[in-house]
Structure formats: structure tokens, C-alpha cells
Design goal:
The protein has helices at residues 22-25, 88-93, 118-132, 161-173, 184-191, 195-216; strands at residues 8-16, 32-40, 47-54, 67-71, 76-82, 99-105, 108-115, 135-143, 149-151. With 218 residues, it is an alpha+beta fold. A 9-stranded antiparallel sheet has the order 4-5-3-2-6-7-1-8-9. Strand 8 (135-143) and strand 9 (149-151) form a beta hairpin. The two termini are 27 Å apart.
């Protein structure tokens, strides 16, 4: 007998985490990180983490005590140890949602997970926003009653004119592209607002996306 079907939400968050995440901090320019995995080792609570780094780099770009454990013609597998605290991915997993994919570029960490309710998604966004000050929903999709993926539509009437202008300008300048064509400071300059105000508009829009998802799953 198959598992019971339930509503589900697939989420990818983007976190400006170059300061707090060694993996994100090792990226910049054309360097990207991908396929991160981690596990606890020993009784001291230390965590062993690995990821693939793609692109030219020097040792100063890698986490402290990092070593290369495998090489291909396209990437190198980097291993390092860290404390368990202050980890972006583990903060999400503490909510009971295993992280399924991790990558990073230009100091931005992207992590994917599945949630069974909107409250969990909102909790993850709030937790990371409080810790890092810049988090956005990169991708959001919902499945319902086994019918497959259902992308979420947002009523544009929920957005103020200023919020809509901010989102449209960010889109036009390539803020949501991978890699980005413009960063938050550049978009904010185009709009003649501060980067913090730009981040506030994005956070508010994200909240409205979540509200729409909650209503759509009722």
C-alpha cells in the first residue's frame, strides 16, 4: 500500500551568507560551490563537511583547515571541519526539514528543502532573516493530492506600487539571475533607495507570496 498523499511545498531559499557560511565565503567571481554534504564526527560535536568547488581559486578562498580530497578536470572536492553552531543549513534542518540540495555563488548560499506546511517555510525564512539579515525565496512550488507540481500565483493587487516597482527593477537588472547581473546595492541605487530598504521590500513581498500559498492550500 502506497504512502498517504499530502500537500507538499518545495522551497529554495537564497541567503546572503558569505560572512557566516564557509562554503558561501569560498565563492566569488566565477567560482561556485555545489553538492555540499556534512556529518558529525566523534564525541566533540564537530562537523565534517565537503563540497565541490568549480573555478579557479587560491587556498585563501577555502575554509580554515580545508583539504582537497578528490579532483576531476572540472572540480575539486574540498573537506573541512567546523563547529555545529551557526550553520545556515542546520538551522533549517532543526525545523524538521532535511536540506536536499546546497550550492553557492558570489557569496550567496542556496538551499532546497521540502515542507508539509506554510508555517514551516515562514519559520525558516524568519530564522535565517534574523540571523543573516538577507534571505529571499528563490523558488516555490506546491504539490496537492498527488496531482503534480502547482506553481504559486500571487495577486499583484497585494503589492504596493513601490513593492511592484522594486521587484520589476530587480528582475530587469538581473538580480534574480544565476549568476546575478546586479547585486542589491546596484538595484537599490537604480531605485534611489538604501540596500536595507530594498531588502525590506523583498521581505514583504516574500511574506505576501507565503500568504497566497497558505490561502491556496486551504
Amino acid at each position: 500500500m502506497g504512502a498517504e498523499q499530502t500537500d507538499g511545498i518545495r522551497v529554495r531559499l537564497a541567503v546572503e551568507a558569505a560572512v557566516g557560511c564557509p562554503v558561501a565565503a569560498s565563492t566569488g567571481g566565477d567560482r561556485i560551490a555545489r553538492s555540499a554534504t556534512w556529518s558529525r564526527a566523534g564525541s566533540d560535536g564537530r562537523v565534517v563537511e565537503e563540497y565541490d568547488i568549480v573555478g579557479d581559486y587560491d587556498e585563501s578562498a577555502l575554509p580554515d583547515d580545508a583539504s582537497v580530497v578528490f579532483e576531476t578536470d572540472r572540480s575539486e572536492r574540498v573537506r573541512f571541519t567546523r563547529d555545529a553552531s551557526d550553520c545556515v543549513c542546520e538551522a533549517v534542518e532543526a525545523l524538521g526539514t532535511p536540506v536536499t540540495d546546497v550550492s553557492a555563488s558570489r557569496g550567496t548560499l542556496r538551499l532546497s528543502f521540502h515542507a508539509t506546511d506554510v508555517e514551516t517555510v515562514r519559520a525558516a525564512v524568519d530564522e535565517l532573516d534574523e540571523a543573516y539579515g538577507s534571505v529571499r525565496i528563490d523558488r516555490l512550488a506546491r504539490t496537492r493530492d498527488g496531482e503534480g507540481e502547482d506553481m504559486v500565483l500571487v495577486d499583484r493587487g497585494r503589492l504596493t506600487d513601490r513593492q511592484q516597482e522594486v521587484l520589476e527593477t530587480a528582475m530587469e537588472m538581473g538580480y534574480f539571475e544565476r549568476p546575478r547581473s546586479a547585486n542589491a546595492t546596484e538595484v537599490a541605487g537604480k531605485l534611489d533607495i538604501t540596500p536595507s530598504t530594498f531588502a525590506e521590500h523583498l521581505a514583504t513581498a516574500q511574506s505576501k507570496v507565503l500568504d497566497s500559498l497558505l490561502e491556496g492550500s486551504a
